[in-house]
Amino acid sequence: MVVLSSTSTNKISLTILHQVPEGHVGVYWRGGALLKTITDPGVRNIPCGTKGGVMINFNRIEVVNRLNKDAVYDTLLNYGVHYDKTWIYDKIHHEINQFCSSHALQQVYIDMFDQIDERMKDALQGDCTRYAPGVEIISVRVTKPTIPESIRHNYEQMEEERTKIIMEQKLMEKESARSQQQIDNEMNLAREKSMADAYYYRLVKEAEANTLKLTPQYLELRFIEAIANNTKMYFGDKIPNMVFDQKLLGNFLESVAKMPRKEAF
After folding, report:
1. 142 and 29 within one domain
2. How do residues 17-69 score in pLDDT, each as one tens digit?
3. For residue 225, what are the domain limits?
4. Which of 143, 158, 212, 265 meets the CB 3.0–4.6 Å disulfide criterion with 60?
5. In terms of domains, do 233 and 123 share one?
6. Residue 67 contacts by C-beta under 8 Å, 6 or more apart in sequence?
7. Distance between CA atoms of residues 211 and 199, nearest Å
């Protein structure tokens, strides 16, 4: 068990950098009163100043490491049994502050936060490989930093506005797509109507042409042509079974009479 006293008179605020070793938990007293807060192993409450001067606090950084068997003797000979304090827990504070001091709050808190774990792992492993080659950094996990309340409120408002803008943009895109679909439908309808009108117009004109063409003279001509094309005509025993319009028959006979006759030799 690791014991840490706190003199803060406000709400629970454990802002003193401290470390809880593996196999232990951290408990806290404030003004002699035991707090209910219990923490797990790891580096705790690392203060960090961003490039813009804003102070933030990483509540917890966990580092999982392993000492290779072949390097145990040299590592303990050079750095003692607390080698991890020298090359991991003390150094993580330096590395996280180096990162914060070269980046703005927006980058640390939002834009590049998902990269911090890997960056810290690479930084720790680089020095361990150089000075304590038996130490292997397996993983690093950094919790989301706490930021001043006023800034956090501003970020929440910004996130709310950003979400609102995204929703409005999606709504506009849907409205635009619906308008485009309506335009396409109207164009298709106009095209189909135009084709139907053209087809109807053609039928009307054909009907008008047929009406103008079906004169008595034209019908008489067609009748004569039909009769003339017949090579055989059959008559019944009684008065004719084939009945002709007298006018048409007379005109037909008159036209036959006018045809030139062949002389017999």
Report:
1. yes
2. 555 665 555 666 777 777 766 655 555 578 888 998 889 988 888 888 888 98
3. 215-255
4. 143
5. no
6. 75, 83, 134, 135, 136
7. 18
